[in-house]
């Protein structure tokens, strides 16, 4: 799964933005700033952001709901972390099993070589004794 990521330092964006020419600029400023002048600039360019700002500011009065959402996000994050760790361990176990099989195969080949060499030496010794 190939994905392309673009990392934008929000503090640098906030310092250097000139105006809101695209919706992406509005989203970045929405995330990066809580200054009244920036809020006004975003809502004037894109009025639909006003409702988002209302929801964000409403959390100041509903702290239990915010903590509940945060706890839920942590629970999901913990589940995903556990799944990732299990997947990584399964991959490691698979790699170790494959390595073990290769080593067992190599040991079997060496044992066969030693047996052949032993038989050759026994025949050589028998020829010398006769």
Mind explaining what this structure looks like?
The protein is mostly helical. It has a domain at 10-97. 80% of the residues lie in helices and 0% in strands. It is built from five helices and no strands. It has helices at 10-16, 23-32, 36-45, 49-58, 63-129. α1 (10-16) packs across α2 and α2 packs antiparallel against α3 (36-45). The N and C termini lie far apart (72 Å).
SSE blueprint:
Layout: H1 10-16, H2 23-32, H3 36-45, H4 49-58, H5 63-129
Main beta-sheet annotation: none
Please give the number of β-strands: 0
Q: Radius of gyration, rounded?
A: 34 Å
Q: Which H/E pattern describes the elements?
A: HHHHH
Q: Determine the mean pLDDT.
A: 87
Terminal residue distance: 72 Å
Number of helices: 5
Q: Which word captures the global form?
A: rod-shaped
Poorly predicted regions: none
The percent of residues in helical segments reads: over 70%
Give the percentage of residues in beta strands. under 5%
Structural class by SSE content: mainly alpha
């Amino acid at each position: 799964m190939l994905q392309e990521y673009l990392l934008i330092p929000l503090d640098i964006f906030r310092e250097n933005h000139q105006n809101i020419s695209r919706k992406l600029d509005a989203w970045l400023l929405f995330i990066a700033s809580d200054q009244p002048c920036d809020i006004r600039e975003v809502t004037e360019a894109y009025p639909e952001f006003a409702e988002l700002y209302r929801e964000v500011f409403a959390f100041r009065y509903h702290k239990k709901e915010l903590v509940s959402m945060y706890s839920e996000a942590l629970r999901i994050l913990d589940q995903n972390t556990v799944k990732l760790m299990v997947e990584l361990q399964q991959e490691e176990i698979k790699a170790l099993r494959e390595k073990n099989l290769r080593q067992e195969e190599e040991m079997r080949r060496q044992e066969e070589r030693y047996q052949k060499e032993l038989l050759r030496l026994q025949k050589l010794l028998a020829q010398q004794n006769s």
